[in-house]
Amino acid sequence: MKAVILRDLGGPEQYRIGDVDIPSLGEDEVLVRIRAAAFNRRDIFIRKGEYPGIRLPAIPGADGAGEIAAVGKGVKDLAIGDKVVINPALNWGNDERIYTKDFSIVGVPTNGTFAEYINVPRENVFPKPEHLSWEEAAALPLGGLTAYRALLTKGKVKKGEAVLIPGIGGGVATFLLQMAVALGTNVFVTSSSEEKIQKAISLGASGGVNYKEPNWEKQLRKWMPEGADLCIDSVGGDNFVKLLNIAKHGSRIVTFGATACPVPQLVMPKIFLKQIDVIGTTMGSPAEFQSMLSFYDKHKIKPVIDSVFSIEEIREAQLRIEKGVNFGKVVVIMPWHEL
Amino acid sequence: MKAVILRDLGGPEQYRIGDVDIPSLGEDEVLVRIRAAAFNRRDIFIRKGEYPGIRLPAIPGADGAGEIAAVGKGVKDLAIGDKVVINPALNWGNDERIYTKDFSIVGVPTNGTFAEYINVPRENVFPKPEHLSWEEAAALPLGGLTAYRALLTKGKVKKGEAVLIPGIGGGVATFLLQMAVALGTNVFVTSSSEEKIQKAISLGASGGVNYKEPNWEKQLRKWMPEGADLCIDSVGGDNFVKLLNIAKHGSRIVTFGATACPVPQLVMPKIFLKQIDVIGTTMGSPAEFQSMLSFYDKHKIKPVIDSVFSIEEIREAQLRIEKGVNFGKVVVIMPWHEL
């Protein structure tokens, strides 16, 4: 089968398209013929070697949707042709709070979704929501799951609350925005791009500030005089200290990433005097994956697609993520050709 | 009346005993004749000027117990001679999560407990637990309240869990230790003093390490192979980063202080990849104060008293806290004499 192969760590030129064997199928596994896949920032980290557990050569990609092409002996409830999305969280286990020691994410160290076929455990495929195209379905899994857990399970967001999402534009951030808007909260965003702020407002954000302008915190204060009830942060760095200022007393800051890591000086007294909960989260449980799909289905929300590339354009595709110019998900579609 | 008066910021010599008017009584207030009072680290911060809202001259002291000496017109359910402890959290309000804007702690900016009499709102006095002496009752309020909220409300501690209390010896830490032991958890402590570790073990701690020794984290790992379920920290600083290493995946770190603040480099990925909740807390609500008293009553626990001084020895008394040599509370007792 055709697949994107990462032979060595390095730049986008390391993505090559090659021929590999179709994966053999375990008893409780299914083979999915990928129709569309999507990029995550994680894929860039892996390509650069900034991720634990990398084994090369590897087929990258955590997000994908497609049709069942074969089922293992133990799988009785799926048939060839069934349309599915893949939950990229492997071996989460039964504890909602935390995954097991065998946990991994599709793409590293197991084979990923930038391929014609992928084998995954039966429990990791879910029916594709009918209102979504293949591109939209492929865009949803990792980001939607992360956002769902961050916003609902960990953030315990409530209608009418003021929610701050710093750094709007990335996949998870746009999922957070969509879900928070659907839940009737007042969402505020930050970005270095006026265009992204306008897009966020068109998606229902109540306001946005350019964090390259001076006094951006002041503007947020005007909109949220008592501060934010919930901040959901993937930036870290200096920004995190500012979030502690913007956060309301007794509020929550959920953190799922730190692109500007490390936080240079975390002033602990702000956390305890303001009685703030700083809540770490990553990925989500199978139950949360199902709830996230149901949420998108119930509210008939479609993931925000930044751009769609053919798989031959994979190097260009990933550049949009690496440069941070994307607003929403970058999707790659099949069928397969030589690069 | 006689009172300890802080006229200027500075060293312990700034504590003077002087004569001031007995406070006038508001309609919903009571006048308490103090029998015993206790020191908190907060009192040292105030004396040095390292605390917000200081107005001088001031009568310091947040902790106290004594007898009702007079009641305001609106107070119908207390009589002169009733034995009470003072809840030092003024104007918490009705929200369990956070106090109101009018919140303050007895001692700054209102008058404190190092005095013959103090006036406090009716709602801030509670019946003295009968099994406690005056010294013990005076030792309990601020530290017991802080510890109760940190361990139970915020930390949601459960029987059988591994609880880590860094820096054992301070008032709140010893309350945490007592309550966590009473709840059937396995408590581990850290200290720079072997003597304090031994005292903690005699109070029911399962083990303790000297953080001046190399590899102290390794020893904790041996006792808690999966890590700590709950850390309750008031140290901050470098130590906080180590706590993130010792914390179990999916665990909680409650923070109520930062004597070694600020945290130099908080590695955010540890918080989100390990899915840790960092939970800020300070003081507690009236309901928590009542629950704390009931807890000490139900389990018939007595606060750990480090030492008892007469009020004339107030300068020596506070030095035990300032030097960090105390294990448990430093109490000062009346009656009044000239210094």
UniProtKB/TrEMBL annotation, chains A, B:
InterPro entries: ADH-like_C, ADH-like_N, ER, GroES-like_sf, NAD(P)-bd_dom_sf, Zinc_ADH-like. One of its GO terms (molecular function) is oxidoreductase activity. Residues 10-332 form the Enoyl reductase (ER) domain. Pfam families: ADH_N (PF08240), ADH_zinc_N (PF00107). Transmembrane segments: none annotated. This is Zinc-binding dehydrogenase.
